[in-house]
Amino acid sequence: MSDITIKEDELNDFIIENFREDSLVEISFNRVFIPGILLNINDEDNLILTLRLQGELLHQTVDVNIDEIKGELVEIRCTHEDNEINLVII
């Protein structure tokens, strides 16, 4: 596992360059935890991650606008095959 501390303004580029579809992405912000399989990365206007939620009751698809929650992000973990990245946002 790689622990990386990253500045808020570098986050979008890092996600676009290093996250892959079909990865498990776990987003922690404010008091919310969102685990899901990454289906799509859209960076046209804002950085939007489309996730298929993982959970006992929820198996729906949601769009998470990273730009809207960037100030409240605590960490993002991305696991693809045997590679795990844990981003701590400062």
How is this structure best described in words?
By secondary structure, the chain is mostly beta strands. It has one domain: Roll (SH3 type barrels). 13% of the residues lie in helices and 53% in strands. It has two helices and seven strands. The chain has helices at 11-18, 66-69; strands at 2-6, 24-29, 32-42, 48-53, 61-65, 73-80, 83-89. It has a seven-stranded mixed beta sheet. β3 (32-42) and β4 (48-53) form a beta hairpin. The model has no long low-confidence stretch (mean pLDDT 93).
Low-confidence stretches: none
Structural class by helix and strand composition: mainly beta
Give a short account of the largest sheet.
Answer: 7 strands, mixed
Q: What is the CATH architecture descriptor?
A: Roll
Number of domains: 1
User: What order do the SSEs take from the amino end to the carboxyl end, as H and E?
Assistant: EHEEEEHEE
What is the CATH topology classification name? SH3 type barrels
The amount of helix comes to 10-25%
Task: Please state roughly what percent of the residues sit in beta strands, choosing from under 5%, 5-15%, 15-25%, 25-35%, 35-45% or over 45%.
Answer: over 45%
- Overall strand count: 7
Count, helices = 2
Evaluate the radius of gyration: 12 Å
First and last CA, distance? 19 Å
Strand order of the largest sheet: 1-7-6-2-3-4-5
Rounded mean pLDDT is: 93
CATH class: Mainly Beta
Labels describing this entry:
90 residues, mainly beta, SH3 type barrels, seven-stranded mixed beta sheet, 2 helices, 13% helix, 53% strand
